[in-house]
């Protein structure tokens, strides 16, 4: 699982979106732009495929199906970004944490996520103390189990219930446009 991080010129940063096996980083290349102001950070170790920018452009030119698939992925990612903005503006830290953990769980395909409170505070753009309180509430609800340097997902259904309306819109778009990934 890879995070796309947006930041200001004075160093303020927050996660904008999450990429897993369903997608790619470097969407700027798909749009014919050679660079992006965002950075990427591997959150959960994974295997990736790296391709040279020129070879990527050649592959897009040679394969209309690849180009169309990646354009559909870009649409899904745009929906994910918009949903993150909505969630950051309207939902509690607990709901946002539940949503974020569900998104990680979707992409990491494992129950034990090697995430720290510090990482989560960066990803959600909130104080570390807020993350600690939110995680404690999720743990008390039975959704997860905390351990040093990681979080274990115990009950996805409880996480879904806590996330409520904050989770599901981008996931439905991924299913609609990309099918099962």
Q: What proportion strand?
A: 5-15%
- Structural class by sheet pairing and helices: alpha+beta
Strand order of the largest sheet: 2-1-3
Q: Report the count of strand segments.
A: 6
- Do you know the CATH architecture? Orthogonal Bundle
Care to describe what's here?
With 181 residues, the chain is of the alpha+beta class. A 3-stranded antiparallel sheet has the order 2-1-3. The model has no long low-confidence stretch (mean pLDDT 92). A hairpin with a 2-residue loop joins strand 5 and strand 6. The two termini are 14 Å apart. The chain is globular, with a radius of gyration of 17 Å. The chain has one domain: Arc Repressor Mutant, subunit A. The protein contains 8 helices and 6 strands. The relative contact order is 0.15.
Kindly summarize this structure in a few lines:
The protein is α+β, with helices and mostly antiparallel strands and 181 residues long. The chain contains eight helices and six strands, in the order E-E-H-E-H-H-H-E-H-H-E-E-H-H.
Give structural attributes:
8 helices; 181 residues; alpha+beta; Arc Repressor Mutant, subunit A; 3-stranded antiparallel β-sheet
Task: Show the helix and strand layout.
Elements: E1 2-7, E2 13-19, H1 27-30, E3 39-42, H2 53-62, H3 64-90, H4 93-108, E4 112-113, H5 117-124, H6 128-140, E5 144-147, E6 150-153, H7 156-163, H8 169-178
Antiparallel strand pairs: 1-2, 1-3, 4-6, 5-6
Helix pairs in contact: 2-3, 3-8, 4-6, 4-7, 5-6
